[in-house]
Amino acid sequence: MGRMKDIAIDLMSFEAGELDQRETLELFATLIRSGMIWTLQGAYGRTAHYLLHEGWISVSGEVTDSGEQMLTAVAA
Fold first, then answer.
1. Are 6 and 37 in contact (CB under 8 A)?
2. Is 42 exposed, middle or buried (0-12, 13-18, 19+ CB in 10 A)?
3. d(C-alpha 69, C-alpha 31), whole Å
4. What mean pLDDT do residues 5-24 have?
5. Distance between CA 43 and CA 34 in Å, rounded?
6. CA distance 56 to 28
7. pLDDT value at 1 more than 70
8. Helix, strand, coil % (nearest 5) of the chain?
């Protein structure tokens, strides 16, 4: 139950706009990896499709090198 609680807190933080880019990317990677992303409301699935299309997250739910490069560019 502990991890589910963490995900619920992360989802609420995302909805409130409290996550930075890295936290958001890691949240979506976790949701894709678990398969949970496809059970959430449509906006989550659309965001996941965007992140996958951009190549920032892999279909297996890992932040890619391109994702890391994007995060580095945003942080600069």
1. no
2. exposed
3. 21
4. 93
5. 17
6. 10
7. no
8. 75, 5, 25
**What tokens appear for 34 in the block?**
């678990």
Instruction: Kindly report, residue by residue over 33-61, the tens digit of the pLDDT.
Output: 999 999 999 999 999 999 999 999 999 99
d(C-alpha 63, C-alpha 52), whole Å: 10
Give the C-alpha separation, 55 to 8, whole Å.
25
* Percentage of the chain modeled with pLDDT above 70: 97
**Rounded CA gap, 30 and 14, in Å?**
13
**Which amino acid is it at 70?**
M
The single residue listed with the structure tokens 């190549």 is: 55
Distance between CA atoms of 51 and 45, rounded to whole angstroms? 10
